[in-house]
Amino acid sequence: MSFQGGNEKGDYYVSLGYLNEEGYILNSDFERISGRVNVNYQANKWLKTGLNIGATTSQGNQAQATSSQTSSFVNPVRFSRGMGPIYSIYQHDASGNYILDDKGNKLYDLTVSRPSGANNGRHIVAEMDWNEDLDQITSLSGKTYFDFQLTKDLSFRTNLSLDERHFYNTDFENKFVGDGATAGRSGRTYTRRTVVGFNQLLNYSKSIGNHNFSALLAHESVKERYNLLDGSRSGIIADGNTELINFVTTLGLDSYEDVLNDESYFGRVNYDYDGKYFLSGSYREDGTSKFASETRWGSFWSLGAAWRLDKEDFINKLDWVDMLKMRVSYGEIGNNSGISWYAYQGLYDLGYNNQSESGFLQASLENRDLFWETSENFDVALEFRLFNKLNGVIEYYKKNSDNLLFAVPLPLSSGSSSIYKNVGSMYNKGIEVSLDYDVVKTDNFKWNFGINAATVKNEFTKLPQEEIINGSKKLMVGHSIYDYWLKEWYGVDPADGAALYVPTEAAIAANGSDIRTVNGTILTTNQGNGEYHYAGTAIPDLSGAISNAFSYKNFDFNFMFTYQLGGKVIDYNYQSIMSAGTYGTALNVDILNRWQNPGDITDIPRMDVTQTTNFNATSDRWLVDGSYLNLKRINFAYGLPSNLIEKLGVSTAQIYTSAENVFSINARKGLDIQQNFSGTNSNVYTPSRIISLGLNVKF
User: Fold this and answer.
1) What is the enclosing helix (H) or strand (E) of 315?
2) For position 608, what pLDDT does the model report?
3) CA distance linking residue 61 with residue 82, whole number of Å
4) Cβ(487)–Cβ(475) under 8 Å?
5) What distance in Å separates the CA atoms of residue 572 and residue 669, rounded to the nearest whole number?
6) Which 8-state DSSP code applies to residue 354?
7) In 3-state terms, what secondary structure has residue 268?
8) How far apart are CA 488 and CA 554, in angstroms?
């Protein structure tokens, strides 16, 4: 709900919102209350000021289904996906009836001994019921400004902002089953992030005939402070109380404070002639405490130009051209993200104490030569509106990133696993096209069709070493950060159902018992002797969205598809349930198509104890076509007619319904291709279909 109003001296806006969602996983929910007040006041003809205050408080049970817990036993997505669906949640008697407690409740089956593949000794339903993983977050923001009109053409503005985020996590693990058994344990984590920003902007604008000038000179400083307090204890004393004082033994207690300072001086000049020719230029000096004092500052600049061709006589004569604009720009920006706040410093980790004696370990090596990563950005675009129906933008871009900030691996003898350095260069380039067309446009009926598409090519041009293995990827000059580096899967031998891989030259030369020839091709049945190769990329050939918007009198209807063509996803989730390994694990029904008799043609190997290592070993076998089509959103709205609105005494009233994540078509049912751009997936809470019905009223 929002309120707004004002007069010639000022205006105000007030809003208050409430959200309550229950997740489809047990013990997962989210509740939020948010409010905002915005006031502007024209004190006199040369001074205007304002205040914007916002507050949000929320709490949510996470059900331990977060990306940081993807491999945890208490991750319900992992647990339910990996465990065979034949084991009972509750206790039964010999006749198959539920065993109940004295209050008539079913008892969890905690005593049964399951195979290790069925998570023996764990019980995800009981642990989600008895455990706690609650996030409570309060965010506060305050912004104020003063605008001084010094002269007709010169103004000065100063802004001050304060943002605080308080995060409090309550973690409890019960004493009956799971990680907390048999004593029970509890943890509390509190973090506070405070950001104070202060800037001053001097603006000048002047018009002389058809010549229009504007200039900006500014300074900005940002200070960020991060505090953490974390503690945990075990040995619960009285059931029902999860506060730390109700536990006997302290397991850990930690606190620290981080401080980051950034400062910038910058300026910009804009010029246009008669709204036809445009020029702009900017320059900035950025400093950060992440780097040593001698390398702290970086200098960056940009230039841009635009041309409104539709204002030229030779285009203006064409009545089918409503707007035609060409623009081009080049600029440099600095980046210091992806590294620690103390990246240049040599540091030690505390907390490695031995009884009463202090202890610490070397954590990082000093590098005072560390400096800003630089991105050189070039783009050229054509913007247009034609036939009073077709709007479009066609843009080409290229971004060169130099002196990339990397954590370079070090030998163990150095005392540190890595050191931050400026090493490597890469580029991203591509084409982006956005079009929308008014198919029908009458007084009562309108139909607008829109489509956008984008390509991207990524490639390293320089690296600190010949190759860097990073999970399923290998970084090399001439290749992308998203190129897969995997063993090469060949298929299944129809003679005996063995898994086949393309062997290394060394394995061929050794000619071990795993080497065989199938259809004239030398292969290996041992995945360990398989040859690595570049097996494609996660980057799609094309991605974008398709939208349609219809309106008929008081009715509005629109929907949007998102899509991707090309690219690959490595489906670790599918691989995990295509296992021939430990008893008790869940199996995908595709295993029914495994090799069973000589002559069987299939891509699923023989399933027996000699094949457990190779049956679902990691290789390019698990790469899936990343193409998809998602119906992302549908909206339908009906605005009440004016005669009814007048009777109700309101300005506008609209009934609406909407749906999100309606359906997805891709190469494998259930695969969330959009989980990571890098083409990987994990055990996380996936987007659910949401259907909403609402009423929007303005008084």
Assistant:
1) helix 313-316
2) 83
3) 23
4) no
5) 14
6) B
7) strand
8) 59
Place of tokens 């304002």: 50
* Encoded tokens for 457: 């090519």
548: Cβ contacts below 8 Å, ≥ 6 apart: 447, 448, 449, 450, 558, 559, 560
Q: Which residues of 163-201 are buried (b: 16+ CB within 10 A; e: fewer)?
A: bbbbebbbbbbbbebbebbeebbbbbbeebbbbebebeb
Give the H/E segment covering residue 80. Answer: helix 76-82
The strand pairing partners of 460, in sequence order, are: 426, 477
Q: How many CB atoms lie within 10 A of CB 116?
A: 12
Determine the pLDDT at residue 572.
92
Distance CA 440, CA 176 (A): 66
- Alpha-carbon span 211 to 578, nearest angstrom: 70
Secondary structure class of 500 (helix, strand, coil): strand
Give the amino acid at 247. Answer: F
The answer to whether 626 touches 564, Cβ cutoff 8 Å, is yes
Instruction: List the chain residues with pLDDT less than 70.
Output: 65-68
The predicted pLDDT at position 296 comes to 96
pLDDT, one tens digit per residue, over 309-349 is: 999 999 988 999 999 999 999 999 999 998 999 999 999 99
Kindly report, residue by residue over 120-160, the tens digit of the pLDDT: 889 999 999 999 999 999 999 999 999 999 999 999 999 99
CB 305 within 8 A of CB 328: yes
d(CA 195, CA 262): 11
Residue entry with tokens 């279909």: 689
- Mean pLDDT in the chain? 94
Cβ-based burial of 257 (10 A; exposed 0-12, middle 13-18, buried ≥19): exposed
Q: Which residue do the tokens 């109380």 mark?
A: 241
Q: Which residues of 509-523 are buried (b: 16+ CB within 10 A; e: fewer)?
A: eeeeebbbeeeeeeb
